[in-house]
Protein 1
Amino acid sequence: MKRGPLAHFLLWVFFLGMLATPVVLRRISSQHAATQAGEATCQSALARYGFCLTEVSQQAGIHFVHQSPVLDQKLAGIMPEIASMGASVSIVDFDRDGWPDIYATNSRTGSLNHLYRNNHDGTFTDVAAQMGIADVNQAGTGVSMGAVWGDYDNDGYEDLFLIKWGKPMLFHNDHGRGFTDVTAQAGLPAWINANTATWLDYDGDGKLDLFVGGYYPEDVNLWHLANTRMMPNSFEYANNGGRKYLFHNLGNGRFEEVSEKAGITSRRWALGCAAADLQGTGYPDLFVANDYGVSELYLNDHGHFHDAGQETGVGFAPKSGMDAAFGDIFNQGKYAIYVSNISEEGVLIQGNNLWVPQQGKTLHYENLARDLGVELGGWSFGAQFGDLNNDGTLDLYLENGYISASKTRSYWYDFSKVAGGNSSIISDADHWPAFDGRSLSGYQQKKVWINDGAGKFIDVAQAVGATDRYDGRSIALADLWNTGALDAVVANQGGPLLIYKNTVAPGNDWIEFDLEGTSSNRSAIGAQVTLYWNGAEQIQPVTGGEGFASENDRRLHFGLGKDPHIDKAVIRWPSGRMQTLDHLAANQLVHVKEPA
Amino acid sequence: MTPPPAITRPAAQQALWKRLLDSRFAPPVFITLILLIGNLSFGILESYQKTLLAIVTAMVTEMALGKFFLGKWPHPASAYITGISVGILLRSPAFWPYALCAAISITSKYALRVKGRHICNPSNFGICAMLFLASESVAGLSIQWGNNLASLIVIWTLGALILWRAKRFQITATYLVSFFLLALLRAHITGDPWQSEISPITGPEYQLFMFFMITDPKTTLKSWKGQCLVAAAIAVVEMLLRLDQSVYAPLYALFLVGPPALLIEMWLNVRRKNRTAPLPQLRPEMAQ
C-alpha cells in the first residue's frame, strides 16, 4: 500500500478500537446491572421503584408443583421439548365473595388441577376436588393446558372452559357451590390440542362466545401417535398446526362452531390470544400470537373477521409468538400489544414485539420494543401489563425460561442445527437429536419492566424481588388481598405455583372497577374503561383470557400516582352503551352495573 | 466477500444474459435478488434500515480506505456484497452492530494484509468478530426462507450457474460433497439422526456461505486443486467444530482455514520462485 508506517499505525488503532467497542459496551452494561443488583432489598426497592414483591406461596398455603405431561414414548428423545407446556394460572372470583380466587392447571395424566379459594386472611384453600374441577386429566381425555373463565349463561357466576391437549371441557358454575361438566351438551369437539382460548362476544348479542386456538393438529393424539411426523413443517412459516375454533353461543347451553363462516381459517400454531376493541367499532378484535410464524390480527367487521396482520404491520416478520397482552402504555387511550418471542444470547435474537398503534386514519402498528427497552426477555412466555407501583403508568411482567435441566450442557446447538433445515427434516420428531438431560434456555432471570412514563421501561426484577429461575409460563395479575396493589401469580412448568405479594410504597393512589353487564354479557367481557385524571387518560379492557394460558383478575386496576384528581371514568359496555362516572374518589373498588 | 473477476471474452460476442452472468456485477445482482425475494416472500429482514446501514457503512469505509491507502476509488461491488452479507447474516435488535460489523469487515481488508494481499474474507471476519466479541448483542441468521424445496432449488441453480461461469463451481461442489460425507460420519460418531446432520445445509445461511463466502476470489487460492483442497479442509474443520457443538461452525471454519491456506500458498509461491530465479525481486502486488 502507498501510505507510510504512521498511516498504518493509525489504521491499526482504528481497527483495534472497533474490535474493542463491543467489549467496552458490555463492560459498561454489566457495571450498570451490577449496580442495580447490589441493592436488592425490599426497603431499597420501595424507596427506589415504589414497590417490592415477596414470594408468599408457602405462607398462603399453596404448595402446588406442576407436573409436565408424559406422552407417547416415540417422542422420548425430545420429550422435554414436546411436553414443555401446561402450567397455567387464571384468576376468578368463582363464589362471588369479592375476593379473587386462583385456578392452576396440572398436566400429567391423572394429576389434579387446583382451585384455591381466597380465605380473606392471606391464605388459600384448595377446593377443586370439592367443586368437581380437580380430576380433569384422566387417562384417555388428555391433559390441561390452560383455563379461561366467563359467564356464558349470564347467571352471574363465572363458568370454566378448560383448554386441553385432548378433550376440551366446559364446566357450569352452580352458583359457587360446585361445577357441572356440560361439555357434551355444549357440542364441543371430541379432541383439540390447544394452548390458548379467550371468551369474547364477537357478534354483540350479549352472550359470550369462545375462541380456541389449536397448536398440534386435532387428529394427533400425543399419547398414541400414528407416526412422528407431527412437528411443525417450518420454524418460521409453519401451516400444519391445529385449526382455530370460534364457538358461537346459541344461548341454550349449546355452541356452534363458526370459525370458517366468520373468516378464521388459519392453521398456524397458536399459543396466545386476546380480544379487545382495537378499532373503536364497539366489536372486539382478536389478536393471535402464533408459534413458528407470523401473528394474526383478526379485525371484526360487525361479527365477521378478516386477518389484517400484514396490512396493520403485525403479521409480516415471523417469530415464535407465545403471548398476547394489551396495555395503554403511553396513557393515550390506545392499546399497545405485547407479543413474546425467543432471544438467546449469541444464538437466536428474535426479540419480543411491542406493537404500538400509529397516528393515522387506518390501523397500523410499529414495533417499538427495542426503543422502549422491552425487546430482550430470553425464551419468553407469559407477559402481562399492570401498574405495579401505582404511579399511573402500566408496567410489564414477563415470564421466561424454556427447559431447565443440566446447568452445564445445552441443547441449543442441536436445536439450531435442525430448526433451520428443510421441512421434510424438521417436521419429523424422529429426525431430532435426543435431549439427554440438556437445557434449552433454562434458569433465566425474569423481567419486571417498570414504565418510567417517558418512553422507557427499566428491568427491576432482581431489585424488587422477582428472583426465581423456574421455567415460567403463565402469569396473572390480581389484587389478591384487596389492598389496592397488583399481586402476581406465576405458573411454572414442572415447578411451583408462585405468589408474589406486592407491597407498594405509601403515597401512590389507585382505583379499581368491578363491572357487571346487564344487556351486555354479565362478565362485562369486552367492556372498556377510560379513566381521566390529572390531565392523563388510560384505557383498559375487560378480557376473557389474555397473555399465555392465563386470565387476569376481571376487575380493572388503575394506579393514579400522588394526589390524584379523578375527572371521570367513561365505560363503554359491549352493548354499545356509554356510561360516565363522575366524582370518583381514589383508593376504592367501584362496583358498576350496566344501566338498564 | 468480493465478486469474481470479469471473464475476458469479448463482450460484444456474448449474449446480454451471458455478459450479465460474467460481469463483476453478477454476484451483487444475485445476492440482491436473494435478499429481495427472501424479504418480499418471507420477510427475512425485519428492518430494511439495518441492512441499508450495513451496506452504506461498508461502501463508505471502502471508499475512504481505498482512496487513502491505494490512491484510487475502489470498485463498489465488493463493499456492496460485504455490506449486504452483513445485513443478511447478522441479527441484532440494535443498529450499531450492523455498522460496526460492516466497518470491521472492510477495515480488515486493509489491516490484515500480507504482501499486499488481504488474507481474510471480509464479511466472514467481521461476522466472526461480532459473534466472538458481542454475543450478547448479535446472533447469526436465524430466519428461514420457507423451508420448501422450490426456493432451495432456485437459489442453488442460480448460484451454481454464476459460479460455473466464474470457474469457481468446483469450490462449492467440493464443499458440498465433503459436507454430506462428513455429516454421515458425524451421525455415526454422535448417534444423532443423519437427517439432523444434513439439515443445516438445506438452510439459508449455507446458501450464502457456499455461494459467496468460500468462493471469494480475493481470499481463495489460485490453483484449482488448492481451491478444492481448502474447501474440503473447511468442511473437515467445520465437522470438528460441530462435534464440539459450535453453532456457527461453518463461519468459524472458514475463519480458521482461509487465512492459513492463503499464507501457505504465498509461501509456496515464493519458494517456487526462489527455485526458478535465484535472486527474485519481490514486488508487492496490489490486490484491489
Protein 2
Amino acid sequence: MMNTAAIVIDDLLVRRGGVVVIPGLRVCVPAGQVVGLLGPSGSGKSTLMRAVVGVQKIAGGTVTVLGQVAGSPALRSRVGYVTQSPSVYADLTVRANVAYFAGLVGQGSDAVDKALAEVDLSAVADRKVERLSGGQRSRVSLAAALAGDPELLVLDEPTVGLDPVLRRDLWNLFHRLAGAGRSLLVSSHVMDEATRCDRLLLMRDGSLLSDSTPDELLARTGALDAEAAFLHLIDTAADTAEEVV
Amino acid sequence: MNPRLTLLTASRVLQQIRADRRTVALLLIVPCVLMGLLAWVFQDTPVFDQVGPALLGVFPFVVMFIVTSIATLRERTSGTLERLLAGPLGKADLMFGYAIAFGLVAIIQALVATAFAIYVCDLDVAGPVWVLVVIAVLDAVLGTALGLLASAFAHTEFQAVQFMPAFILPQFLLCGLLVARDRLPDVLSTTSDFLPLSYAVDAMSAVASQVEPLGDVGPDLGIIAAWVVAALVLGALTLRRRTD
C-alpha cells in the first residue's frame, strides 16, 4: 500500500445552504504519510474532511479513499475520523467511551489500553469525560479513533488547546503511525505546525493554494516560515487575478 | 443489522442511564407518585380501578418518549451521531440498540409501578397481573420507538420538547380514557383506530375487567408491536449518513 494514494479527490464540488464552499477541488493524498491541511478557519478544511469520511453531501466530483468511493460500507471500519469538537459521551468514563468506539470496529481492551496510553490519559481512564478539561476531552475523542487502528486517520484540529509538550508527543505519535504504514490527514489553523508534516496542503476559500512538502513550499516562495509562505501565495494569487482582469 | 453492534450500543446507552442516578430515581419514583395521587383523588370511588390500569400503560409511554427524544437529540448535537454514522454502525443497529436499552429500563419501571399500584394503592384488576406488566413494557417501548422517530425531525431542544404534546396529547385525547372510543364523533373514532395508544388503553382495560383477557389483549399487543417496528424502521430510514 505504500507509495499509492490514500485519498484521490477529483473536481469535488460542495454546496452548503445553496452557497458553494468547495468550487471544484483536485488533490491526491499519498499513503503512509502525515499530510497537513492548513488554512484559516472557514477555508473549507472541515468540509473537505467530512467529504473524505463520507458524511458530507457533495454536489459533484468524486472522492476515492483507499481505492473505494468515500463513505462506502467497506471503508467504515478502515477510516478513523475525529471531529473538531470532541464527539464523545460526556456522561461516560474515558475508558467506556474508547471501549465503545473500539468495540464497534471489533477491537478489544488491549487496543483501548494502548490508545489511552498513546494520548496520555491512562491516569484518568475511570473519570467521567464531563469532569475533564477541553484538551483532555479532545484526546479522548482521538483515542476513540486510534483504538480502532484505522488505515486512514482523518483528524480535524486534534492539537488545539494542548500544551506544547503534549502537542510534540502527538505529532511524534502521528509520525510513528505513518511509519507503520498508516495514512494521516491532519488539519490545523496554526501555521507553525506546518513544519511537522511530511506534506502540506494550504487551503483558502475552498480552494488549494499549494500542495507540496514544507521545504518545497519555503523554497518556492522564498519565505522563512509557513505563515509568510501562506501570505505570499495569497498575494501572488491576488496579483494574478488582477492581471487577468 | 448486526446483533453484536446493536447489543454493544444498547449496553452503552444503559451505562449512560445508570451513570445518571437522579434520572434513574425519577424514572422509578414519578410513576408511583402519580399512581398514588390518582388513587387518592378517586378515593372511595370505583374510578381508580377503571382508569388506573390504563394509566399504568400511559405513564411509561409518555416518559420514555420524552427521555428518548432528548437522548437522541443529545447524540446529534454532541457530534457522536455523525461519528457513529461515519463508522460501521448500521442505522437500524442504533435504533434497536436504543429500543433494547430503554425496553430493559421499562421492565424495571413497569414492575415497580405495577407493584406499587397493586400492593400500596390497592388497585384491583380482574385479569392476571403479569399481563399488566407486559402491556406496560410494550407501551414504554412504543414510547421509545416514537421518541426516536420524532427526534429525527427535531433539530433543537425546543423542538424536541414541543414534539411531546404534538405526538402524545392527540393520542391521549382519542385513546378512550376521556370518552369511550365508540362514543367519539365518527371521524375521531376512526382516527383513533389508527393510533397505537388506543390499543394500549384497550389492552389495559381488558385486563382490568376480564378474568381471562388474553383473547382481547393478544391482537392489541400485536398492533402495538407492529407500530414499534414500523417506527424504528422509519426512524432508521430518516437518519442520513450524509448531511449538508
Protein 3
Amino acid sequence: MAKPDFSQAYEDNRKNVWNLISRFVFTVQDREDLFQEVFLNIHKGLKGFRADSSLETWIYRVASNTAISFVNKKNRYKSLVDLLHLERHVEAEKEQEAADLEELLPLKKLNPKQRMILLLSDVEEKKLEEISEIMGLALGTVKSNLFRAREIIRKEVVKNGGI
Amino acid sequence: MAAYKNYEEYIARLKCIRTGLDDPKMRVRLDTVLHRQTHSALWLSAGMAAILFLGLTMYLNFSRIERYGAGPFRSYIFQPLETTKQPVFNYLFSD
C-alpha cells in the first residue's frame, strides 16, 4: 500500500488538528508551538504508518499524545512559563482573541488527559470508541474521565456564572 | 469570563471560539522548522566529526608525547630507526 503523502495529510487535517489544540492550550504561542510539534511528529511517523486505523484517527492519536506530553513538559517549568505567558497575553492578543482565550480558562482545571477526552467528545463530537482508540485507553477509563471532566467544568462554569 | 446557564451553553461557546486558522505564519513556520531541523542535523554531524578529529589528534599526540617527549624537549634520539625516516606517516600510524 502506498504511504500517505505528508503535504496531503497536512492539508486534509490541519484544520482538525488546529481546532483541537487551540482549545487544549491557552496561549497563541503555545498553539503555534504545539501545532508545529504535532506536524513534525506526523512527518517523522508517517513512514511507519500502518493502516491499522484510518489516517485521520492516527493523526488525532499523534496530536493527542503530543499535546499531552507538551503540557506535561510545560508544567515542569510552570512558574517561569506562566510569567512569560502573562506578558504575551498583555502585549500580543487582540481584544476579541483575548476574550476567546479567557473562555478556555475553566479547562485549565482539568488534567491534560481529561481535557483531551472532553474536547474530543464534546467539541470534536467523536464517539467514545473512537476516543478510546485515539488515546489508547480502555472504554471504561474514557467514560469515567469524561464524566469527571464534565462535573469539574459544570461546577466551574456555574460558579463563575454566579448562578 | 462570560456567565453561562449550564454546561451545554459553555460547550456551544467553546465550539465558536475563533482560533485564527488563517494565520499565514503557521505554514511558513512549519517549513522553517523542517528546514532548521536539517540544518541542526548537519551542524550536529559536523560538530561530532570535529570532536572525533580533535580527540583522535590528542590521543595520538599524547601517546607520542608519552613515548618521545614534547615541544623543544622532544627527543628523536630514542625513536626506533624506521620511525625517523617518515615522521608524518609515523606520527599517524606509530603505536
